[in-house]
Amino acid sequence: MRVGVVRAVRAAAAVLVAAGLGHTLWTGVVEPGVALAFATLIALGELARRDPRPDRSDRLPAPLGLAGALAYALLGQDAGRPTHHGVLQIVAVVAAAALVGIVPHIARGHGPGPDHLARRVLTVAFAAACFQPLHHSGRLVAWVGQGPYLVLFLLLLLGLTALCDAVLAAALAGARNGWPYGPLLRDELRARLGIGAAICATGVVMALGVAVAGLWAVPVFSVPLLLTQLSFHRIAAIRTTYRQTITSLARATEIAGYTPPGHARRVATLSCAVGRELGLTERELTVLEYAALMHDIGQLSLIDPVPAGATAELPAADARRIAELGGEVARQTGVPTEVAVIVERQADPYRQQPVAARIVRAVNAYDDLAGSDRHPAGSLAALERLRLGTGHDFQPEVVECLARVLARGGPAGVVPVQGG
């Protein structure tokens, strides 16, 4: 079923692109100057895209290219002269320009996948199919005129287009990773309230500007969004550096020999998978990841290391002392207060813990109990131990979400449960 969703989306986009390219090559490009201007803008937008993190769904990474594609789909006039390009030419121009802009990223080995282009083609085709036939037939002008009602119509149409894109993005992400669809759709919609709103507004303003002033409006209205995109690049670079610092700090326990190699990374990866299963937001997942990476940092304060770093087997008082020491160390590193709170409360009874601390505690115990051999039988035995402790130590919902994640194969680097 999941593979079928991805194939259906890609197949629909491929059919549209083939039809668009075939139609355009057969009939020729209508108004080639306009097509070239918008194709150049889309290609430049893809060239300036921000490469997404491989373990996060990075939304709208090429805002300038998307704004240009939407503006071309909603273009009805060029300096007062009616345009005549149709839906199929729009699809062909957008697909060809996006491919040109994506090629350098692919050559460097970190270009976007086919799902990115498929979503771009389908969402732009949706906007064009809703606007161009109404415009060419004259019914749109007869219904709303050329005044503010036209602007409202365009904004409403782009709102529906953004909803279409969010639905596709959530469906593809859920199909690829097995994550729940509802939380994914919620996060996709929330993401479009930020930069997505700016993209839609720029697309509308650019289309209306070209209708009045001609193609000179394209570079003029592209500058604000380009500056916004550059600002996002800087923010993303800061966040990447911060995350790398947290990851390096978390490895201190491994380097010092307090915890097994890769333990913090496995706990963080599996905790985020469980958090997604529980419906946490992207921000909550980020906090959860940082806390999971640093959950054992309190062991650096110990004189005698815990055998194999397995805090799950410790008495409650010792585990709580290590967690409190970890919270103090985390605060001194400058991480957000909520991260330190999760670290210091991971040894409390689960009814007294925030949700993220419940997740970290259960996942850490699973990784500790699975042992160094990490074979399917050991994984199944560890999960059963967690289920036996749901009366006091572990929240039942978290353990069952963990079981579902492991049954689906789990994240990379984590051995799945088999036979249970």
Written overview of the protein:
- This protein has 420 residues and is mostly helical.
- 71% of the residues lie in helices and 1% in strands.
- A two-stranded antiparallel ribbon has the order 1-2.
- A hairpin with a 2-residue loop joins β1 and β2.
- α1 crosses α4.
- The two termini are 22 Å apart.
Helix fraction bin:
over 70%
Low-confidence stretches: 53-58, 372-376
Q: Which range does the strand content fall in?
A: under 5%
The description of the largest β-sheet is: 2 strands, antiparallel
**Separate helix tally:** 18
Averaged pLDDT, please?
Answer: 84
Q: Structural class, judged by helices and strands?
A: mainly alpha
Shape: elongated
**Rg over C-alpha atoms, rounded to the nearest angstrom:** 26 Å
In total, the number of strands is 2
SSE pattern: HHHEEHHHHHHHHHHHHHHH
Determine the N-to-C terminus distance. 22 Å
Descriptive keywords:
420 residues; mainly alpha; 18 helices
Could you give a short description of this structure?
This protein has helices at 2-27, 32-47, 63-73, 87-107, 114-137, 139-144, 148-177, 181-191, 195-213, 217-250, 252-255, 263-278, 282-293, 316-333, 337-344, 355-370, 376-388, 396-407; strands at 77-78, 81-82. The protein has 420 residues and is an all-alpha fold.
Give the topology.
Blueprint: H1 2-27, H2 32-47, H3 63-73, E1 77-78, E2 81-82, H4 87-107, H5 114-137, H6 139-144, H7 148-177, H8 181-191, H9 195-213, H10 217-250, H11 252-255, H12 263-278, H13 282-293, H14 316-333, H15 337-344, H16 355-370, H17 376-388, H18 396-407
Antiparallel strand pairs: 1-2
